[in-house]
Amino acid sequence: MAVGGFGGVDGPVSSFNGKITASVVITCIVAASSGLIFGYDIGISGGVTTMQPFLQKFFPSVLRKAAEAKTNIYCVYDSQVLTSFTSSLYIAGLAASLVASRLTAAIGRRNTMVLGGLTFLAGAAINGGAANVAMLIFGRILLGFGVGFTNQATPVYLSEVAPPRWRGAFNTGFQFFIGIGVVAANCINYGTAKRSWGWRLSLGLAVVPAAIMTIGALLISDTPSSLIERGKVEQARHSLRKVRGKDCDVEAELAELKKASDVANEAKREPFVTIFQRQYRPHLVMSIAIPFFQQLTGINIIAFYAPVLFQSVGFGNDSALIAAIILGLVNLASILVSTGVVDRFGRRFLFLEGGIQMFVCQGWQFC
Question: Subcellular localization, per the record (predicted)?
């Protein structure tokens, strides 16, 4: 990540007992709201691809297969064009993430979120007014760039602004807003599924979370760490005083951030050499292994295509959308639980608990 190094944020700065001020809460809520755009798109695409008017306009071959399906409708969705529509966002997000860390370091966390919000806004507008498959895919690519930029900048922003003692809880705010976006999207899909223009409303309403996040990001300041990294020390002092409280002496923390910035700048000279050093190998392995094996559980596929999967096992269209809503609500409840315990019991506890729970549940499916 961009501030890779500011990696000291969890280190030396953790000795400063920053208070939870109204300013830091509002700032973090605004930043975390960028999760809405990702969550909304996770929930919206699967439901839209089950709507007959949408399929009739863009993917008639899928409807023809559905009419011929007798036992299992899963293969009905075996369409390369339809797959291009759904996957283009995530491919674009992957491409954006490759440059997002440098962009976040160069222009700041806040500006990257604004850029991501504007890109997502444009993509949502194009999707809502799409007249052909090319417009759909182009809009999805723009959505992917928006997701890639905001998913890079927001967690870093939250980590650098949140009081060290409550950093875990504030960081889960991003995931919480993703959950809200998923549930909202599934509810909208359920409400619009019966209308011939419902798919346009579902896709087009993505402009709402994008506008909320973009406008909100324009109203907040960048993080002290980011400002120091770009040589704006006085602005960093003002930003730190704003989030820690006007009566709080921020000079010691500011000095620590400067020191961390100097260390980070030294490390950036040969980052790929540094990361492969023996002392950092455990961190490198875990940073790759944790998300890799989480993806292999298939949970993201379930989240993205829940309505389609529920239909494939025999649910009706309405029942599939309701089941997706229930799934989203369960996920939202689990995020609230993790928010309450992450700073009390630690991240390792949640990894162990979540891993055991997934192992038991997936093992149970084979019984």
Answer: Membrane
Hunting for tokens 């690519």 — which residue is that? 141
Are the beta carbons of 2 and 102 closer than 8 angstroms? yes
pLDDT in tens, 82-97: 778 878 888 898 899 8
- Are residues 187 and 40 in contact, defined by beta-carbon separation less than 8 angstroms? no
Tokens of 54: 């949408």
User: Is the whole-model pTM more than 0.85?
Assistant: no
CA-wise closest residue to 143 among 153, 154, 135, 155: 135
Query: For residues 148 and 266, which has the higher predicted lDDT (pLDDT)?
Result: 148
Give the H or E element holding residue 137: helix 133-161
CA angle 329–332–337, rounded 5-degree value: 130
Q: Give the span between the Cα atoms of 143 and 123, in whole angstroms.
A: 5
Residue 269 pLDDT: 59
Domains of the chain: 22-220+269-365 (1.20.1250.20)
Tokens matching residue 98: 């490759």
CA-nearest of 88, 81, 44, 86 to 59 is 81
Q: Give the pair of three-digit tokens for residue 178.
A: 């993703």
Structure tokens at 197: 């223009």
* Integer-rounded Cα radius of gyration of the chain: 22
Cβ atoms of residues 186 and 43 within 8 Å = yes
Q: Angle at which helices 22-32 and 207-219 pack, to 10 degrees?
A: 140
Contact 46, 200 (CB under 8 A): no
Tokens 């529509």 — which residue?
85
